[in-house]
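Posting this for the archive.
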Amino acid sequence: MVFHSTSKYCYAWLKNQPFVKEESLTDWLLYSISQQSSKIYYKTFTRNEEAGNGSDWEWWILSYNADYEIQAYRLLVQAKKLRPNVDNYPLINYSNKNGMQIDLLIKTAKERHALPLYAYYSCCQPDINKQISNIDYVSKETLKWCEFCTNGCFLTSAFALQKNIFGFPRRKIPEEELIDASFGLSLLDVIFKDSKVSPNFLSELNFHFRDFLDDKNSIRGIVHQYRNLPTYVQTLIERNSQEDLSWFESEFRYEIGNLAGVVVMDTR
């Protein structure tokens, strides 16, 4: 399975080369998953300054709704390489002249109707019981689908992180605490492999996003209709993956903004 093997390789890479750079892991991860499946499209862009939006890349997950209409779930992801045996608070409290990175990520995600996520790189493995207790936006059944998987990359909600960490006085944040509040990247394979769990998982992420909106009934959350997708996403899906897309970034530079890359997972 694509995400199982990729995340497990990240684990081995971190074990063997603990000083590997976060950017190297991200570039390899996104390229690797796109090469393993014809249903995953990936386009990287010239490394832009992410200070303006607090994110690294954008993910789109395409599926059919109950009426067989094409819809897409939008995610906005910021990568962090966690540090073992030290305080990780400064890492997640990162700020620049535009403000705190997590605030920028959440603000941009709300504007784009995308779920803000952090991707952690770490060799630390979670405790399933603590995951179930800590992650209230994903069901126990979904989390247990990957209970025994080995991961080197984990995902967590920026909303939950902001609430659980920055909603309290400053304290030491160990790597284990962050991992026990995240789910392995391998869980994304459920979208392709288990039709019973997949719709529930995506719906759970959408409901979680809506919980943090002022007006929960005004929009459809992170769900977008195909006809309303950004032009750069439609183009990436409809073009042959082997086609020369060297013109892509300059053509859509205003829509792309500060994104370092875009990934589309087509589950149709």
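The longest helix spans residues 2-16. The chain has a mean pLDDT of 87.
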